[in-house]
Amino acid sequence: MNEQLLKWLNGELSEDELKKTIPAHDMLKYKQIIEEVERWVPDNDSVVFNPKDVTSQPKKIKRRFINPWITMSVAASVLLVVSTMLWLSISPDITTYSTSTAQTKEILLPDGTSKITLAPDSEVSWHEGDWSVNKRNLILKGKALFVVRSGSPFEVKTGNGKVEVLGTTFEVDEFEEGLNVVCYEGSVKTTANDNRSVIVEGGEAYLYYEGEWEDRINIGDSSPSWLKSETKFEKAPLIQVIKSLEKLYNIEIFLGSISLKRRFTGSYPNDKLDVALQIVFNPFEISYELKGNKLYLTE
Amino acid sequence: MDKSVCEEQVFNDVHSSHVVTLRNFLYYKLGDLEKAKDYTQEAFVRLWDNCSKVSLDKVKSYLFTIANRLFLDDTDHQKVALKFQIRSGVSESQQENNPEFLYRQEEFKIRLEEAVSNLPEKQRVVFLMSRIDKIKNKEIAKELNLSIKTVEKHISNSLKTLKANLDELNGLKI
To answer: HSE of A123 in the Cβ direction (CA atoms, 13 Å)?
Structure first.
C-alpha cells in the first residue's frame, strides 16, 4: 500500500489506480490533505532580504596567525603571547574588500563620501583606527580608481610606495615591479619606497619602474579606460600590460624567454581575449599559444 | 573557467534560486517566520564570507548545512505552530464563494495546520519540502543527507498521521 501511495504522490500512479488498493473514503481524505497543503506557502513574499545587503558588507576575514617562533625559548614565547594578543586585539578591525578576475567593485569609504573602484583581482584594506578626523589611510594591492573628497589627509600605501592626497580623482596601479599613478583631478603626491616623490597634477600620469620615476605622461581621458570597455596604456612596461591581461581575463601567462625591455602604447578590449592578445603581442612579434587558461609566449 | 560564488553575479543567482526554499525549510523547522528569514540571511552571509571555499555544485548542501546548524544552535525553541498563506494565484472556484463552504474550508485549514505542526520535526520538514516546495525526493535526500527510503518513509508516514488525526473530525470539508 505504501508503495502505491508514494507512486501516487510522485505522480506516477493515477487516482483511479490507487483506488484499486485503498478504500475510496481514505483516498478522498488523502486527496483533500494533499490538495490543501499544496495550496500553502509560508509567505507569498519571495523577498527575504536583498543580496546587496550581504555582498556590500566587508568580509569578516579570519587571518591565521602563523607562528614563526614556535621553537624558540621561553623568553621568546612570552613575546609571542604578547604579540598574539596584540594581533587578536587588532585583527577584528581590519576591513578588506577584494575583486576576483574580470570583476570591478565600487566601495564607499568610511568617511562616507570618498569612493574607490577596485579593478579586477585587486584588494583594498584598512584598519578602523586608520580612519579618524586627522587621517584616512588604506592599503592597496592591485589597481583602483579613487574619488576622494577634500578633508583630512588621505594616504594609499602600496608595496612600492605611497600616494598622498587632499581631495581628487586618481588611479593607482600597483604591480609587483612598479607603481603607476594617474591623476584625473586635483593633485597627489606620491612617494616611492626609496623616498623619492613626484607631484602628479590633474591630467598627468607617472610611472615608477625599476627604481626610477619616469617622465610625465599627459593623459586625455577623464576616467580610466578599464571602467569602460577597454584598457588603455601609454608607454607602459610590457610586464604591466601582461599582469593586467592576466587579471582581467583570468589567465596565467608564461613569459618564456621573451624580452620585457619594451613598452606598449595602445588599448585592448576588456571582453575579447583573442583580439586583446593580437593587439598586445603582434606588434612585438611575440607568438603565443593559449592552452586552457595558460598562455605561453615565445619569440 | 569555473564560476566562483565570490563573483557577485553568481552569488545573486544562487540567492534567487535558493533563498525561498531555504527560508521555507527553516520555517518548517522553527515555526517562526521572522527567525527563519534572519537565519536565511545569516546562512547567505556565511556563504559570502566563505565563498572561495565553497564550489558551486556544493552551494545548496552548504546552505542547508548552515541553516540546520543555526537551527540546532537556537536554544529558544517554542512549540511549533505553523500558519500558512494561500499561494497567490490559486484560482477560486465558484463554489468557494459559498459562505458555508468557506467556513468549513477555513476550519479544515486550521485543523490541518495544527496536525502538520504536531508531526515529528524531521517528518514535517521532508513532507512540506516535498509538497509545498515541490522538491524531488532524490533532491531532498541529497540536501538533508538522508537516504531516499527515509525520505519516502517520512512522506508516507506524515500523510498517514495527518489522515489519522483528521479522521477524528467528522465529515472534513466535503
So the answer is: 9
